[in-house]
Amino acid sequence: MSEEQNLNEVLKIRREKLKKLQETGRDPFKVEKFQRTAFSIEIKDNFEEFEGKEVKLAGRIMAKRTMGKASFLDILDRDGRIQAYVRKDAIGEEEYDVLTTYDLGDIVGIRGIVFKTKKDEISIRAEEVQLLSKSLQVLPEKWHGLKDTELRYRQRYVDLIVNPEVKETFLKRNKIIKAIREFLDARGYLEVETPILTTIAGGATARPFITHHNTLDLDMQMRIANELYLKRLIVGGFDKVYEMGKMFRNEGISIKHNPEFTSIELYAAYEDYEDMMDITENLVAYCAEKALGTTAINYQGTEIDFKPPWKRVSMHDLVEEKTGINFYAIETDEEARRIAKDKLRLDAEKHMTRGHLVSLVFEEFCEKDLIQPTFVLHHPVEVSPLAKRNPDNPLITNRFEAFANTWEIANAFSELNDPIDQRGRFEDQLKQREAGDEEAHPMDEDFINALEVGLPPTGGLGIGVDRLMMILTNSASIRDVILFPTMKPID
């Protein structure tokens, strides 16, 4: 019999067992509740308190050993595993005969007394076992049945059951999310909500997802960032705001990219990008301490320490140090493109200026060296349409990106609050779009109107929460820190 035929036979037997249970008035799917009084880890950690006392515990059967008149069930509940010891003379012959038909994966409720076996294993001596839900599928073995990562992501519910370390990753994620909110709330930031559906997806350079509102007969876009709405709130008089939530970008999928991802953006009136550096390094260190108990971590074999202060270096200095080329000393964009092609073998497109080339060269040659937490400062104005120009050099902006493990994990700047300059930057972005840059920023007249009402000097910061989660949980792929990542349908 083939493996597939064998599986089909097992599934058939499980359904026959369910039918027999239903025919004898034991339909598990009619059970509505089970009142639990304790959990596995709680019992194990406080055995002296629970020993000899009755508890009610519920969970999934992960292992089962029947030896004549007694059976051992390994029960997985919310927190972990615990053994149940079931004797025929304790629950009655009829109940015991039914129990012997239970399968791995079935969910049961146990009432019994906490004790230690002769082998010193903390267990529950069952006085009653109730079937609460029948599993009609077969759970894979931990190391053999669920190796296929695609299947793990598609069937995360099974992944969480058979691979305890996966559940631990998401418990750490929960701690980090809470830590972010604790950190910002304690510093006077107000958590707010802004639209996900909008007519203009702004605040970043990325391709949006397009949808349609039937009632309004209006094409709409899913947000790629929440920046412009949050800055409108600063205009309206909220001094410190943040929002953590889903963003959507219609671009490639990789170990670092998922089309739907979690990001946090925060804005503080009367502060600048240097204040945002202070927030970034201390926030990340706080999250590491909360989740891991240390700022020094090992990510996939690489030692990384998030303890402040982090290194600070300008983008153009990194580029010159790596290539020997000072693009801002070159007189024309045309000459800069020629040098980039001839000396660096880069595909310098016609619309690219010296600023674009600085950014491109940095991405191609410098990012790979940024292992330890580093602030890369002073991005070209061409790739920073919402950042304030540096007063000493109008070709660059007071902006930074934070890198760790060669990845960008945060982006921040002193926010551009000059509506005339902002309109000019948006117009330049429209020209770039006409020249073929599909990710160039669109025009947003209402945002310019908000700036004309008056935006105070403001510092803004965005952090890619999922990438931060990857590093802090030692996860190799972004899919490992998103419960249900975007997947192509099997069909």
Mind telling me the C-alpha Rg? 29 Å
Could you give a short account of the major beta sheet?
A: 8 strands, mixed
Count of the domains: 2
- How many separate helices? 16
Strand order of the largest sheet: 6-10-11-20-19-18-15-14
Find the CATH topology of the largest domain: BirA Bifunctional Protein, domain 2
Shape: elongated
Distance between the termini: 27 Å
Which architecture of the largest domain would the CATH scheme give at its second level?
2-Layer Sandwich
Report the helical percentage: 25-40%
CATH superfamily of the largest domain: Bira Bifunctional Protein, Domain 2
Tell me, what is the CATH class of the largest domain? Alpha Beta
Unreliable spans: none
**How much of the sequence is in beta strands?**
25-35%
Describe this structure in words.
- The protein has an eight-stranded mixed sheet with strand order 6-10-11-20-19-18-15-14, with helices on both faces.
- The chain is an alpha+beta fold.
- The radius of gyration is 29 Å and the shape is elongated.
- Helices cover 35% and strands 26% of the residues.
- The protein contains 16 helices and 20 strands.
- The mean pLDDT is 94.
- A hairpin with a 2-residue loop joins strand 1 and strand 2.
